[in-house]
Amino acid sequence: MRPEVVDAERSIITEEMRMIMDDPMRLVDDQLDAAVYAGSPLARFICGTPESVLGIGRDELVAYRDAHYRPERTVVVVAGAFNPAVARRLVKERFGRQKSLGRKPAVASKVRPPLDGPRLKLLDKPTEQAHLALGFPAVRLGDSRLPAVKMLSVILGGGMSSRLFSEVREKRGLAYAVWSHCHTYEDTGHFSVQLGTSPDKAVTALEVAIGELRRIATEGVSVAELAAAKEFVKGKTLMAMDDPGALAEFYGKQALMEGKVETLKARIAKLQAVTPAKVKAAAQMIFRPGRASFAAIGPFQDEAPFLRAIAKL
């Protein structure tokens, strides 16, 4: 790890930061993380700050690598057409020379998103388009409620037939993009809704989206709607797993983050077992105004209209 290589990479990362600052759709996601996980490491931007990157040298990188990139923390996944015996031999040859420390290094303590009321982050920029992100604490990896939360996300904002897409974009023309997503980590997670709209429609678009969150928590979902969502997820998942890289990531992430591995069949079966009552319960658990975090990028200075919209949840 030569110092000149570190210096070159530092310049590349600094340029990546500039690109992110010019990409509001990506930047608003980082701003939401900073609000949801305020006070914890998950609130930090992944690429760091100009100051932190400038302060990291070769010695710091080597020390970090030696402490964390250890055999006892390594998962090697092989997927596709291969000879298992040859694969095991190659893994042993390439990875077996490094000695284990016999223990895992300390990791950050568990975090919980703040629950002391709505947290807002407005980034005032003179843009023609506005980007909004609404987030709520949800579930971690391995939580028994995760399949229901995933189905909730699909029904709300998982495609062109989703509720948010239909109501916010198709029926009312309030946004050119709208979707939801369930983010999961080892010890925590959050549920997000994102919208791309025009600044003059931002508050109304947020109000309509929140109305859909309130409606699904109050009225739930029908058997037919849930069945359609299940088929959508099943088809999308099976198609994605035709790629060996995706299959390797599917199993590798489980082994690394959860310490256990479920087959694709078992994972799909858990999604198929979700009931309308479980989806409604997940919505009621997540969508509460006092637990909301919100981020917006656009020509905004006043938080009050957004706070009033969130209060309607």
TrEMBL record:
Belongs to the peptidase M16 family. It comes from Candidatus Uhrbacteria bacterium RIFCSPHIGHO2_02_FULL_60_10. GO terms for molecular function: metal ion binding. This is Peptidase M16 C-terminal domain-containing protein. InterPro entries: Metalloenz_LuxS/M16, MPP/UQCRC_Complex, Peptidase_M16_C. Pfam families: Peptidase_M16_C. Residues 56-231 form the Peptidase M16 C-terminal domain. PANTHER family: METALLOPROTEASE, MITOCHONDRIAL-PROCESSING PEPTIDASE SUBUNIT ALPHA.
